[in-house]
Amino acid sequence: MIARMDNLKAQFMGVLLVITLMATAGCASAYKTVLPTPPDNYQKLGAAKGDACGSMLILATAYNFIPISLNQRVENAYQNALASVPGATALMNVTMQENWYWWVIGSTKCVTITGEAIR
Questions:
Q1: 9: pLDDT confidence band, cut at 50, 70 and 90?
Q2: Are residues 26 and 48 in the same domain?
Q3: How confident is the model at residue 47 (pLDDT cuts 50, 70, 90)?
Q4: For residue 97, how many C-alpha atoms fall within 13 Å in the half-sphere facing its CB?
Q5: Quick one: pLDDT band at residue 78, thresholds 50, 70, 90?
Q6: Which pLDDT belongs to residue 60?
Q7: Which pairs count as long-range contacts for 92-96, CB under 8 Å and 24+ apart, including other chains?
């Protein structure tokens, strides 16, 4: 009886270990380059700032499944920052801030990109 309990305990621990490893591996990703590499010769044009938001709709957090402009919000914020400085072709020294807002039937995630505009 004791041997059977030890066997069940070992099986349980094995299953728990496999689940933990799968969950940990599922949370990993590679680095993503957001900015292009600046050219060798460039002109600084000043500070730039851009915002963009996206939403997830339908009920509570666990059930949000209708994305609206959610996947493009970082790219849109970057493009808005470029557009905020006439003649800018890229940004340097970029920072990104994300704010989340929860409301009755969904959530909104807003990104703010700031940096130094260059040409």
A1: confident
A2: no
A3: very high
A4: 7
A5: very high
A6: 56
A7: 92/35, 92/38, 92/42, 92/44, 92/116, 92/118, 94/34, 94/35, 96/34
92 and 39 housed in the same domain: yes
Q: Tell the residue number behind the tokens 């621990």, with chain if given.
A: 13
Residue pointed to by tokens 């609206």? 68
Same domain for 88 and 40: yes
Same domain, 1 and 14: yes
pTM: 0.67
Q: Which residues of 43-53 are buried (b: 16+ CB within 10 A; e: fewer)?
A: eebeebbbbbb
* Domain containing residue 106: 34-118
